[in-house]
Amino acid sequence: MSGRLIAVVGPSGVGKDSVMAAMAARRPDLGIVRRVITRAPDLGGEDYEAVGETAFAHMAATGAFCLSWQAHGLRYGIPAAVRDDLADGRDMLVNLSRGVLAEMQAAFPGAVVLHLTARPETLAKRLAGRGREPREVIETRLARADMSLPAGVRAVEIANDGPLSEAVDAALAALYPARV
Ligand SMILES: Nc1ncnc2c1ncn2[C@@H]1O[C@H](COP(=O)(O)OP(=O)(O)O)[C@@H](O)[C@H]1O
Ligand SMILES: O=P(O)(O)OC[C@H]1O[C@H](OP(=O)(O)OP(=O)(O)O)[C@H](O)[C@@H]1O
């Protein structure tokens, strides 16, 4: 059986990368897609492939991505090779923009969407604590926080205001309902 693409979405600082890493730690069969980003290398957080604008444009033009978008002044690409992992039967977590969900569902009909939420004050505190972006950049990220999901996208809503383990429990329970 094919694996499922599991899109993890939500505002900056909500905990997408933290929840994904903790989910994969609990279920080693769950993979995490390594994104290609025009971000400086080694800024911490997720494991990503850092590339320059020219390399990104070349990759996009030669079909290296199954999905790509632009946000926060950066370009993001999802390697088309994720289809090989899915064909091998592996469920794959991927951190996506809310803006590409309709396109993603058309391209991956069996995909599941996990929508993480948290209160605005929680987001502000976490972004400051993460320390990856300067204050002005944090402000513009917070301004996008309440963006809604595109019409017609069905998602599992998961609150991540409390301990990380609670969000991870909720996400795993939604994906892998226990058989009674
Ligand atoms: N449930 C949580 N409780 C406390 N801190 C959290 C929780 N979830 C995430 N964090 C912290 O918040 C910051 C942002 O999390 P991150 O996973 O980078 O979010 P995102 O990928 O959605 O921007 C990180 O410093 C992370 O350690
Ligand atoms: O359209 P949106 O839903 O607002 O999302 C836009 C981008 O923001 C996040 O990026 P990134 O992972 O660089 O930032 P984050 O870790 O602060 O969320 C997310 O992964 C998208 O790439």
From TrEMBL:
Record bears the keyword Lyase: no
Example of a GO cellular component annotation carried by this entry: cytosol
One Pfam family this sequence matches: Guanylate_kin
Keywords: ATP-binding, Nucleotide-binding, Transferase
Nucleotide-binding found in the keyword field: yes
Coiled-coil residue spans: none
SMART domains found in the cross-reference section: GuKc
Superkingdom in the source lineage: Bacteria
EC number: 2.7.4.23
InterPro entries linked to this entry: GK/Ca_channel_bsu (IPR008145), Guanylate_kin-like_dom (IPR008144), P-loop_NTPase (IPR027417), PhnN (IPR012699)
Record field: catalytic activity: alpha-D-ribose 1,5-bisphosphate + ATP = 5-phospho-alpha-D-ribose 1-diphosphate + ADP
An example Gene Ontology biological process: 5-phosphoribose 1-diphosphate biosynthetic process
Domain Guanylate kinase-like: start-end pairs: 3-180
Amino acids binding ATP: 10-17
Pathway field: Metabolic intermediate biosynthesis; 5-phospho-alpha-D-ribose 1-diphosphate biosynthesis; 5-phospho-alpha-D-ribose 1-diphosphate from D-ribose 5-phosphate (route II): step 3/3
PANTHER family in UniProt: GUANYLATE KINASE-RELATED, RIBOSE 1,5-BISPHOSPHATE PHOSPHOKINASE PHNN
Function: Catalyzes the phosphorylation of ribose 1,5-bisphosphate to 5-phospho-D-ribosyl alpha-1-diphosphate (PRPP).
HAMAP family: PhnN
Similarity-based family: Belongs to the ribose 1,5-bisphosphokinase family.
Name the record gives this protein: Ribose 1,5-bisphosphate phosphokinase PhnN
Lineage: Bacteria, Pseudomonadati, Pseudomonadota, Alphaproteobacteria, Rhodobacterales
